[in-house]
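Technical annex, item 7. During the second reporting period the consortium partners agreed on a shared format for inverse folding records so that results from different sites could be compared directly. Each record opens with the tokenized structure and is followed by the designed sequence. A conforming record, contributed by the partner at site C, is shown below for reference.
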């Protein structure tokens, strides 16, 4: 029962950080969260410990707990690792995905393209995450997916905040998932890996401009 409660709290608070409801460097108060979720402070404290281990929050002794504000160097390192993982996953997907699953991936990418054209930030964030989660799942490697999940969340969090703050506009939104899908359809693992890595590296460059 306790583990289930902590998992639920973990997902909710984690999502609040991801979607920007809890902003970078914002102070997190146990008592406020306990009141919000109608629980005692003990499961909140354990949930925050998990988020700290994941690198999403920072605890400063005698000061408080805050959503982590990544330095430029940390952002670069996170994206460098994410690019390697994403490339590896795309390679495996190109070798393992079924034809009917490629159709699902194409539908996600088309919705993402439409969101780019319409400057629809909410749908853009949603479909971008769906695309990368699909790649993560269909690589059929649980260990790789486990490691990817941490870096996927951190980069998606950074990306989401940039979208919300209007830092992506016009040509900055003109990147596409479609070339990666074409490489996967052709069952070309080398090209799929190369394009997936480039996709993340370009996202890093846009974020750091």
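Designed sequence (site C submission):
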């Amino acid at each position: 029962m306790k583990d289930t409660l902590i998992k639920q709290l973990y997902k909710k608070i984690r999502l609040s950080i991801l979607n920007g409801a809890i902003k970078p460097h914002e102070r997190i108060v146990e008592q406020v969260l306990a009141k919000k979720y109608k629980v005692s402070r003990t499961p909140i404290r354990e949930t925050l410990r998990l988020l700290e281990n994941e690198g999403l929050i920072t605890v400063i002794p005698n000061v408080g707990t805050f959503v982590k504000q990544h330095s430029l160097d940390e952002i670069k390192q996170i994206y460098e690792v994410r690019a390697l993982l994403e490339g590896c996953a795309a390679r495996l997907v190109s070798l393992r995905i079924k034809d009917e699953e490629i159709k699902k991936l194409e539908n996600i990418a088309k919705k993402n393209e439409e969101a780019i054209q319409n400057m629809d930030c909410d749908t853009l964030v949603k479909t971008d995450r769906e695309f990368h989660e699909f790649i993560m799942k269909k690589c059929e490697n649980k260990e790789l997916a486990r490691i990817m999940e941490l870096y996927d969340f951190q980069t998606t969090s950074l990306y989401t905040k940039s979208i919300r703050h209007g830092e992506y506009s016009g040509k900055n939104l003109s990147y596409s998932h479609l070339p990666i899908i074409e490489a996967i359809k052709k069952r070309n693992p080398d090209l799929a890996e190369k394009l997936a890595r480039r996709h993340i590296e370009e996202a890093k460059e846009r974020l750091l401009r």
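Residues 90 and 135 are 6 Å apart (CA to CA). Residues 72-208 form a domain with the Four Helix Bundle (Hemerythrin (Met), subunit A) fold (CATH 1.20.120.530). All partners now use this format for quarterly exchanges.
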